[in-house]
């Protein structure tokens, strides 16, 4: 879920919520631990496959990750990619063993979706026509309005999900913010702070100035002058995500002049103590009021990822890498 703050901050929380959190020991846990027997057909470091005890057809096979999860959406990328690699291989073996040329790969999540064993698993079910598996497919019609709404919500969710893995959690300290008129937070362990607008000293909006985006989110663009070079730097708008796009070729540690790319004015100096011997700190504002209370504070040393996001005169997140 991601909640848009009206003052240029978006605070989102991950990970995704389960349908119903289930951690009870299942028959598949017991099969994996060897407590229950099964007819194993494949095993590697991450995946186990065995024959279903009540097959819908000869060769009906179950494929499970060794990573424990009740539902597909809870799996790590590592477990998911191992499953993705194993599934076609195991399917070929099912086809070879049974002679089938058609099959369904079925994956149920949640009781409503007919999941009976709450340990994520894939069914590979050979098909020969009117056999064990019945599928009722009550299709509707996709309207343009519904499609666009869903598409947009999904694209936003996917952008947030992919950026979550790029945030340097080790060096980011993000506060949970109390609910307020401008920022709302849902309860979850991980916070993502995204700048959706930011203003230079004359009120020019520096987010979305270029068409450069990070995981679908418009970049924060600054002008940097250093070592005889002068150019634009597009920063990821997600705090703790150190990605930047620029043509500048600067050495780590170079002292930079930070300017508004629209007006050319220098960014105002921030009133914070020096944390790096040669660093000075500058700020961009998060609201059109151009208040120090809602701002992003950045170091002027290239590669010195020290920054803070202030909201209502309080530190919302600190990145020190
Ligand atoms: P679900 O409805 O959860 O997607 O399917 C669970 C599947 O697990 C069913 O097809 C069921 O026959 C199979 N199953 C349940 N218990 C056992 C067991 O102890 N051993 C094996 N091999 N399969 C099982």
Taken as a percent bin, the fraction of beta residues is: 25-35%
Structural class: alpha+beta
Q: If helices are DSSP runs of H or I spanning 4 or more residues, what is the number of helices?
A: 3
Domain count, please report it: 2
* Total number of strands: 19
Q: How far is the first residue's CA from the last residue's CA? A: 27 Å
Low-confidence sequence ranges? 1-8, 10-18, 178-189
**What is the percent of helical residues?**
10-25%
Q: Identify every distinct bound molecule in the structure, by name, code or SMILES.
A: guanosine-5'-monophosphate
Sheet with the most strands, sense and barrel status: 5 strands, antiparallel
User: Could you give the order of strands across the largest sheet?
Assistant: 3-4-5-7-6
The average pLDDT is 86
Rg is 26 Å
């Amino acid at each position: 879920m991601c909640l848009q703050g009206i003052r240029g901050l978006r605070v989102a929380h991950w990970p995704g919520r389960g349908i119903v959190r289930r951690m009870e020991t299942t028959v598949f846990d017991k099969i994996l631990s060897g407590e229950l027997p099964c007819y194993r057909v494949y095993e590697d470091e991450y995946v186990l496959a065995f024959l279903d005890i009540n097959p819908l057809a000869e060769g009906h096979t179950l494929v499970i990750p060794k990573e424990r999860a009740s539902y597909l959406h809870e799996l790590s990328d590592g477990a998911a990619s191992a499953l993705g690699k194993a599934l076609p291989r195991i399917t070929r073996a099912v086809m070879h063993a049974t002679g089938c040329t058609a099959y369904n790969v079925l994956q149920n999540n949640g009781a409503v979706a007919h999941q009976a064993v709450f340990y994520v698993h894939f069914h590979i079910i050979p098909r020969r026509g009117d056999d064990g598996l019945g599928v009722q497919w009550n299709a509707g019609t996709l309207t343009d309005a519904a499609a666009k709404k869903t598409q947009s919500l999904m694209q936003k969710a996917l952008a947030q999900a992919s950026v979550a893995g790029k945030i340097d959690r080790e060096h980011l300290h993000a506060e949970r913010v109390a609910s307020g008129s401008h920022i709302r937070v849902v309860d979850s362990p991980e916070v993502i702070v995204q700048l959706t607008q930011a203003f230079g000293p004359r009120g020019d909006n520096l987010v979305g100035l270029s068409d450069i985006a990070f995981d679908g989110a418009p970049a924060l663009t600054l002008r940097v002058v250093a070592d005889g070079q002068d150019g634009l730097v597009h920063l990821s708008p997600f705090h703790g995500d150190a990605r930047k796009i620029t043509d500048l070729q600067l050495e780590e540690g170079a002292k930079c002049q930070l300017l508004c790319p629209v007006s050319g004015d220098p960014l105002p100096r921030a009133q914070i103590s020096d944390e790096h011997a040669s660093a000075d700190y500058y700020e961009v504002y998060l609201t059109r009021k151009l208040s120090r209370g809602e701002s992003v504070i950045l170091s002027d040393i290239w590669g010195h990822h020290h920054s803070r996001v202030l909201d209502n005169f309080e530190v919302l997140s600190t990145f020190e890498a």
